[in-house]
Amino acid sequence: MPTHGAAAGKTRSRGCFITFEGIDGAGKSSQIAAVVALLRARGIDVDQSREPGGTPLGERLRELLLHEPMHLETEAMLMFAARREHLAARIEPALAAGRWVVCDRFSDATFAYQVGGRGLAREKFEALEAWVHPGLQPDLTLLFDLPPDIAAGRVASTGVDPDRFEREQRDFFERVRGAYLERARQAPQRIRVIDANRPPEVIRTEIERIVAEALSA
Ligand SMILES: Nc1ncnc2c1ncn2[C@@H]1O[C@H](COP(=O)(O)OP(=O)(O)OP(=O)(O)O)[C@@H](O)[C@H]1O
Ligand SMILES: Cc1cn([C@H]2C[C@H](O)[C@@H](COP(=O)(O)O)O2)c(=O)[nH]c1=O
Fold it and tell me: 17-215 sits in which CATH class?
């Protein structure tokens, strides 16, 4: 982890990049605010964002991605187009200035949803990833893991109209979940798997411990 001058009195360097991942309804959004509040309470300058989105152009692409039917490869390329803009306009400048970035989803989501869920060729994903953010990965990723049937129940209970992804069937989310867990096995130091089938306050305590570890590293 980079140093975090305001909190530790050390020299400020590049900021820390933390991402949250999981299938729809896993409960990550509910926990992000708590983590951001914890970091700010420790004196850390945090930029909270999301993907797809995070910039005016990215938010327009998000509307298309969540609601407009499209070819699988169009979907993957638009996810990375929004990400390219997000990195250039927001993530990279923030990290370079020593700010921390907490983001709801990043490229692990493209691996899980487009490769795992939809069947995009891995080499196409790898080529896009290597093009758009060579050498950059989050410093820490919290992966909320939950069986799809429980997650679907949570999504339904919100009463909000489901988007194109949320309307997918259980087998789609089984594949997405499997791809996330495969990605976590490939990068166990970076991706921490959180059992999301527990009460929110228990999850919050575990996440606060993991983030506190990151702060003291
Ligand atoms: N640990 C939990 N136990 C039970 N319900 C939860 C838990 N965490 C969140 N929920 C509820 O599940 C619903 C979905 O939560 P949330 O929006 O945080 O999920 P999400 O992972 O961000 O989903 P999405 O990616 O679709 O936005 C909300 O109604 C929320 O209150
Ligand atoms: C970044 C990214 C996202 N998705 C999907 C995953 C979700 O269903 C939506 C975003 O909605 P959320 O409620 O804000 O999580 O987009 C994807 O398929 N691929 C991606 O790279």
Answer: alpha beta
